[in-house]
Specification:
Blueprint (H helix, E strand, L loop, with lengths): L2 H30 L35 E3 L2 E6 L2 E9 L4 E6 L23 E3 L3 E10 L8 E2 L9 E5 L2 H4 L8 E10 L10 H6 L2 E5 L5 H5 L3 E5 L2 E5 L4 E2 L8 E2 L5
Antiparallel strand pairs: 1-2, 2-3, 3-4, 4-10, 5-10, 6-8, 6-9, 7-8, 11-12, 12-13, 13-14
Length: about 260
């Protein structure tokens, strides 16, 4: 190969390498950009482990942390109900939720209809967790009930809510009620007794989750994500397993 042909070969090789790098950079950027924090319009920013299918890719969060935007409001589905995401604390891994039906102006009596459960979810109750117990269509009227549900009562059957159902059971049997439902609330002070049940429930309740510390990835310039239920750090040059830099990485799928 003469000198002129060698020069052309080197130039062609350089162009090929640069083109490959540009394509690879674009591929990584395409994975990096969708995982930027997103806001439905109202409420907190949504980022790992939460993600929204309407605006982000599945690898931007964990499958069980999917949030949908409805009328600019972030909604998380749990225990067969839709919950408004009022706040997310990414420092202590907690989320503040309230039943969305409470904010439906067309529902004049938005009482909880079934028990809340975190079974099968990635969440646990926070330290400020408490419970409010609802009793529906009871054949007796408990005079000690702090919260009367006039919208769910009539002349012969009464509905009410209590913080401590054990006090009720000393004098009455819950079998005299057609249904009982327990729902989570945030434990505060005695000001609760001055509030109606919708105000109490609208305050919401906190749940916490355990997960990988995302801060190291973010501080290194990356975006946290999930691949095959494993934590990944999406960097501007590669998808890595911990944080951006010279550490182990996952092969980047260009598709």
């Amino acid at each position: 190969m003469d000198h002129k042909s060698l020069s052309r070969y080197k130039v062609s090789l350089m162009i090929l390498i640069l083109t490959s790098l540009v394509i690879r950079a674009q591929s990584v950027t395409q994975k990096f950009t969708p995982c930027l924090p997103f806001n439905c319009g109202n409420g907190p920013n949504i980022s790992y482990p939460f993600w929204t299918p309407q605006k982000q890719e599945p690898y931007c969060g964990s499958p069980q942390f999917s949030i949908t935007c409805h009328d600019k409001t972030p909604i998380l589905k749990l225990s067969d109900d839709d919950y408004i995401v009022k706040d997310i604390n990414y420092v202590n891994n907690s989320v503040l939720l309230a039943v969305s039906e409470l904010f439906n102006d067309k529902n004049s009596c938005p009482t909880p209809l079934h028990n809340f459960s975190i079974s099968g979810s990635p969440f646990d109750y926070g330290l400020d967790f408490a419970e409010l117990h609802f009793f529906y269509n009871c054949s007796f009227n408990d005079e000690s009930a702090r919260i009367n549900l006039s919208c769910a009562s009539n002349r012969s059957h009464h509905s009410f809510a209590l913080f401590h159902p054990e006090f009720l059971q000393k004098d009455y049997s819950v079998d005299l009620c057609q249904a009982t439902v327990t729902t989570p609330i945030t434990a505060v002070d005695l000001d609760f007794v001055k509030m109606n049940y919708t105000e109490i429930l609208k305050n919401g309740f906190s749940l916490k989750w355990n997960g990988v510390d995302c801060s190291k990835c973010v501080k290194s310039g990356g975006r946290c994500g999930s691949l095959d239920d494993n934590f990944i750090c999406i960097c501007n040059d590669q998808v890595r397993s911990g944080k951006c830099g010279k550490f182990s990485y996952y092969p980047l799928n260009d598709s």
